Amino acid sequence: MNILLQKYRILGIKGEGTFSEVLKCERVKDGTLWACKKMKQSFRSYHEVNNLREIQAMRHLNPHRNILDLQEVIFDKKSGVLVLICELMDMNIYEYIRDKRSYLSERTVKNYMYQLCKSIDHIHRLGIFHRDVKPENILLKLHENLLKLADFGSCRMLSSPPPYTEYISTRWYRAPECLLTEGHYTYKMDIWSVGCVFFEIIWSRGVPYNFSDKRGTGIAKLIPHASQEAVNLIQCLCSYDQDERITAHQALKLPYFREFRDIDQVRLKSSTKMMDVSKKNICLDKDLTAALPRISEEGKNDSDSKFSVITNLPKAQSLPSHLSHHKERRKRKHKKSQENQEFLSHTGLLPQLMVHSSAVNPFSRANLQTDTSKFNAGSRLKILPNISKTTKSQKPSNGPTKNIYRNYKLAPILGAKREAAGL
């Protein structure tokens, strides 16, 4: 909780449920308002937090216009407190229709139901079903006429095999297959819940629960102000057999939502036009860059401008994975090449040996051949004692000897010269 208070200022309580409470918070850094969902359960490790089904689902489903956005996850390991920072909405559907004294307009109902079906279609396409669709989990932002689906704490993956949890979803929105089977239900349970929410929004008086033993009169008599298309859609969503129940994707294609499909198409076209305009601006920038004066081969500009533009720059290259290893190897190669260059740049008195090409630095500008004509016989005799000082003194012998310089054997030129001179 201390980590939360360092970053956010709590302004009040928005609501409370069985597993969490929602707080209204203000970010200290920039003053923006957010919803803080504080879990009542205590967590012990980051691994347990990352495996939380709600966090995984919200990360998987976002971004989407009709799915609540998860901004940040705050976990205090000392206290075990877990907090989810989400975008702040105005209210939920239940709060919206609770104090209404008149029916909502059919266009308003149609707009909200279209967005709800889009959110359900999105999560079903991504392999998740909600299992707790109800008015309290459907949030609204009134000034934008925006609806978002929230609270994914009960969701499951479609790939997980049944049976599922029997006691799931709120009682008034639970599908018949959830009530009558031992956990053998599918994603169609969300469709039944959507139909119940649809009826509740149109009726604007909550969920009826006082049912008599008499045969029902039908949905149309309960909502006489609704259009026949709306009644037909509710009947398709709340079909008793889940196999006959339509999907959210099929519901979006019905004539009932034609108006908002057209609005979506207009919005899509406008967004594509904006993308085309941005692409044209990028192309225009490239053309202007190409039209700028370039430096000619002689080093002069093609015009009087002093600026030059390089349009095609080389791509940045990543560093080697083992940088220290490559540095040490380069140092060893450089040291070895320096030793070879010291030998090759000698006075020429040493015999010419075969040098392997890999031992020589190819980028070195050193002259590999030494001119020996500059040295006469006298100079050679003066230089030889200096070379002999680098080796250990040895006992004189009667036969010809060989001087050793480092790892190379010198030719017996010293004894030959002495015999020629009569020494």
Automatic annotation (TrEMBL):
It comes from Octopus vulgaris. This is MAK MRK overlapping kinase-like isoform X1. Residues 323-336 have a biased composition (Basic residues). The keyword Nucleotide-binding applies. GO terms for molecular function: ATP binding; protein kinase activity. Keywords: ATP-binding, Nucleotide-binding. Residues 318-341 are annotated as: Disordered. It holds the Pfam family Pkinase. Residues 8-257 form the Protein kinase domain. SMART domains: S_TKc.
